[in-house]
Amino acid sequence: MRRVILVIAACVLFSAPGLFAQGKQLFKGQIKLCTCPGPDEHAGMPGKDASVARCPPPCATPGSRYVLANLKNNSAFEFDRQDLPRAFADQTVFVIGTMDAPGAAIHVNTILPDLPPQIKRAKTVAVVCDACPRAMAKSKAAAFQELISWDRFTPASDPKSADLIFLLSANHYLGDYLTRDGPDKRPVHVATVYLDILDPRTGKSLWGDAERGGSFLVGASTRDLIDELREWMDAEDHPDQRKLFLERHWIFKTATDTGK
Prior knowledge:
By secondary structure, this protein is α+β, with helices and mostly antiparallel strands. The chain has 2 domains: 11-113, no CATH class; 117-235, Rossmann fold. The protein is built from 5 helices and 11 strands; from the N terminus they run ββββαββαβαββββαα. The strands form 2 sheets. Strands 1, 2, 3, 4, 5 and 6 form a 6-stranded antiparallel beta sheet that branches. It has a 5-stranded mixed beta sheet with strand order 8-7-9-10-11, covered by helices on one side. The longest helix is centred in the last third of the chain and has 17 residues, at 218-234.
């Protein structure tokens, strides 16, 4: 018997002016891997406390695919493509896209990760610039400048004692900050600034994004990434601000190897 965790759900949150008035919809849920059993198989039970549901129909072909899921109401939407949701597996996200008919697959424009509670309640952060030669050296100073201006987090000198680590790099994060020996030894081509917010105890990336700007725009790209996080946090209790934020960040994104 194939043992799988089958989760389902998602809901359309709202239609905002501008982008959403043009036909785009906003969905929120978790990106989960849904597995269709074969014709003679049954879905395995993940545990007595877990909600279980089948993949959204049709489920005639055995195999796995990512869906936008919410266990509270056991409903789900599929995606018209699998490359973007794969990069956000197991994360709570906002999805901007269109749906041709109720219950149809979402035609994805972009996916934005929601902020986990650990980030929202954090008080102290340590800024680490990982393997930052040449122009990337500007990134750490730019991050500190934005954090001081924001006045939301207290900087910590020791990453181990901080609530969060802001990891800046020109390479996508591999999830190995705590397990590798020393700094990232991959070649550095300064074209994109990556920001990953790490759990100091596990090294897991809790949230992250990237901005491509080239070596001359490292400082500006870093400030933009911090500002994006700030907008997310400021909009948590203000739905109108969240709508405007998503309006500004809907631009189509291609899948990238995030290492998550």
